[in-house]
Specification:
This protein has 325 residues and is α/β, with parallel strands linked by helices. The chain folds into 2 domains: 2-230, Glycerol-3-phosphate (1)-acyltransferase, CATH 3.40.1130.10; 243-323, no CATH class. It has 10 helices and 7 strands. The chain has helices spanning 2-17, 45-54, 71-79, 95-110, 135-145, 192-208, 220-230, 243-268, 275-302, 304-323; strands at residues 20-24, 35-39, 59-64, 82-85, 114-118, 154-162, 171-176. The chain has a 7-stranded mixed β-sheet, sandwiched between helices. Helix 3 links the parallel strand 3 (59-64) and strand 4. Helix 1 packs across helix 9, helix 8 (243-268) crosses helix 9 (275-302) and helix 8 (243-268) packs across helix 10.
């Protein structure tokens, strides 16, 4: 219930928060059967929110186990289908938790739902693919050749490319790549370590085809050149004559709220990669509440036609302000 309500709000919020979202090859993702989405991870929790809003099936997302330490927080995180991931290197007490994570993900796959895993194992705000960990390969091996026998499992390389990582007004490109099936790996499953290496080599190649990669030594100017060239597949929407003044009005109307929230989030997330995720999460739940309260206030004082106009018009102005600059 919480998951579906949150997804509904996210689908409403993304067109307001983003300037444009461009999705390619969505038809590759099966609508039935177990699916493992193997994604890059440059946008923190925001990656999962975007992917979850795109696909039709519920998704279950791997996330850092340390955010589950607070029992109350852990309860709500599980309501939105987050699966904690623990590292054996963080202590022997986590080994049992790692097994539980794998078993839970396999249960999800048996229910023909989607598991989203970030195969790099680390989140960095950058435009390149980092070396993949072995977690995705191990999960695929156990699903295909373990007791579960999920031979129909499809591993879908998934790539997200952001125009920037600081707030609203960005374009985002999501590409789904060529699926990986068990038969695509030539190494015998019994040769476990070699099989994992071959799987990762294939997954790396297919993930790289779904994202923009900018050389690590590129200057900021060169980064922008690479970005703008890549984002030609997701052009800035043309601005109709009437949309420009309405967009200006929308930005002016929302600037005080956005500035206050963004400054607060910037302080709270300084030195981390969570700025976008926290800002968007606050807006997803807080903004509809503020719009409803404002509409009720205006409706009570000036009449319900005016309250209805506020309820519809304020979010519309926010959308126009972000899309048409």
């Amino acid at each position: 219930m919480v998951y579906y309500f949150s997804r509904f709000l996210i689908r409403l919020a993304l067109p307001i928060f983003l300037r444009r979202l461009c999705v390619f090859n969505k038809q590759i993702v099966p609508t039935h059967g177990p699916v493992l989405l193997a994604s890059n991870h440059s946008g923190s929790f925001f990656d999962a929110l975007v992917v979850g809003a795109i696909v039709s099936q519920p998704i279950h997302t791997f996330t850092r186990g340390d955010v589950f330490r607070n029992p109350k927080v852990a309860f709500w995180l599980r309501q939105i289908n987050l699966i904690p991931v623990f590292r054996g290197s963080e202590g022997r007490h986590n080994l049992k938790k790692i097994d539980d994570t794998i078993l839970r993900s396999l249960r999800v796959l048996r229910q023909e739902e989607i598991v989203l895993v970030f195969s790099e194992g680390v989140c960095v705000n950058e435009w390149r693919l980092r070396p993949l960990g072995k977690g995705t390969a191990r999960m695929a091996h156990q699903a295909w050749f373990g007791e579960e026998g999920l031979a129909e499992l499809a591993v879908i390389p998934t790539g997200l490319t952001y125009e920037h990582y600081r707030g609203t007004g960005k374009r985002v490109v999501v590409k789904f790549g060529e699926p990986i099936r068990a038969a695509d790996i030539a190494t015998a499953p019994a040769d476990y370590e070699k099989w994992l290496r071959e799987f990762n080599e294939l997954l790396t190649a297919r993930m790289r085809a779904t994202i923009l990669e900018v050389p690590a030594q590129a200057t900021p100017g060169e980064q922008q050149q690479h970005l703008q060239q890549y984002l030609q597949v997701c052009p800035v929407p043309p601005t109709p004559a009437l949309a420009r003044p309405l967009g200006t009005l929308g930005r002016a109307l929302h600037r005080p709220l956005y500035r206050a929230l963004s400054q607060w989030v910037a302080r709270r997330t300084a030195g981390t990669v969570f700025y976008d995720s926290v800002l968007f999460g606050l807006l997803v739940y807080l903004y509809p509440l503020l719009v409803v309260l404002l509409s009720l206030l205006v409706g009570t004082l000036a009449g319900w036609p005016w309250g209805t106009l506020v309820f519809v018009g304020v979010p519309l102005l926010a959308y126009l302000g972000n899309r048409f600059r």
